[in-house]
Design brief:
With 292 residues, the chain is of the alpha/beta class. It contains 11 helices and 10 strands. The chain is globular, with a radius of gyration of 19 Å.
Length: 292
């Protein structure tokens, strides 16, 4: 019976524009294992795919000096540059972003890349969007395997990779050890799915878990405790998985200060302590039950 390992914190919980070495320090200071860095579609974040030796060395030194890790890259640029787009040139650009992210992950010893489950833009899709997505993701999985990086497909909003079954079908189609799942229970809830059932199906394929609060149709910026994600139930059902897998907490900075970091850290401490205490009570009940 033990507390869970420290989670990672999503970089966007930090004040906007905080340099990576500083985010690593802040994460450690607030009780996190480290950070999940973002490569979204902004020019500033996409430029990370071209980090040179100097930038890479500076980040590596910061991880050592702050004893703070980069657990994963959230490659969310694929939302705007989807792998399954019918436009061949756009698809090549999307694939190139994936290849460069894998190289950066390998250079920085970042173990995992989160792949967003969007096939194509809603206004620019055809019947082959899913099969093109799978073809491109397979190519990335081959490269990831060569460089020792884990890709993990995230269940998202929209209409593409929404349920556990959607995600598992892609992992099975590609069938490479370098592709697994990055499960986001908040997205299951916001999509109106039964979260424990979805997570139970997904767990045999999961490499990481991302926690955030949501409401139906509301996928981002819902403060912990103000949404409807049944965290007590999730901690109870999946304690062993939460203990064994990397967990990241997704919050978005609203204040430009450190308030989001503090509240995420406090929420985790309270939620895990409560879940652990419930488990101890259950264990004692079971133990006494066996003795009588």
């Amino acid at each position: 019976m033990s507390i869970l390992p420290e989670p990672f914190i999503y970089e966007k919980a930090m004040p906007e524009g905080t340099p990576i070495p500083e985010t690593l320090r802040l994460a450690r200071e607030h009780g996190f294992q480290g950070i999940e860095i973002s490569v979204d579609s902004s020019r500033e974040k996409l430029a990370r795919l071209d980090w040179g030796r100097e930038a890479l060395d500076e980040i590596t030194m910061a991880t050592k000096s702050h004893k703070s890790l980069i657990g994963s890259i959230a490659l969310s640029c694929h939302r705007d540059f989807p792998l399954g787009t019918p436009d061949a040139e756009a698809r090549r650009a999307s694939l190139d972003m994936g290849y460069r992210a894998i190289t950066i992950a390998s250079d920085l010893a970042i173990p995992m890349i989160q792949i967003a489950g969007y096939f194509a833009h809603p206004q620019n899709r055809d019947a082959h969007a899913r099969s093109r997505f799978i073809e491109c993701l397979d190519a990335l999985a081959v490269r990831a395997q060569e460089l020792g990086v884990q890709l993990a497909l995230e269940n998202v909003d929209g209409t593409d990779v929404v349920s556990a079954a959607d995600a598992i079908s892609i992992v099975k189609a590609i069938d490479r050890p370098s592709l697994r799942l990055y499960v986001d229970p908040g997205n299951f809830v916001a999509n109106g799915l039964e979260v424990v059932n979805e997570m139970s199906q997904a767990m045999p394929f999961v490499s990481a878990i991302q926690l955030k609060d949501t409401r139906i149709g509301e996928f981002r910026r819902v403060p912990f405790g103000e949404g409807i994600v049944p965290f007590g139930e999730i901690f109870k059902e999946f304690w062993d998985e939460l203990a064994a897998l990397p967990v990241s907490i997704e919050v978005w900075n609203a204040s430009n200060g450190e308030a989001e970091l503090r509240s995420a850290s406090d929420w985790w401490a309270l939620e895990t302590a409560k879940a652990n205490s419930d488990r101890l009570d259950q264990h004692q009940c079971d133990h006494h039950g066996h003795n009588h």
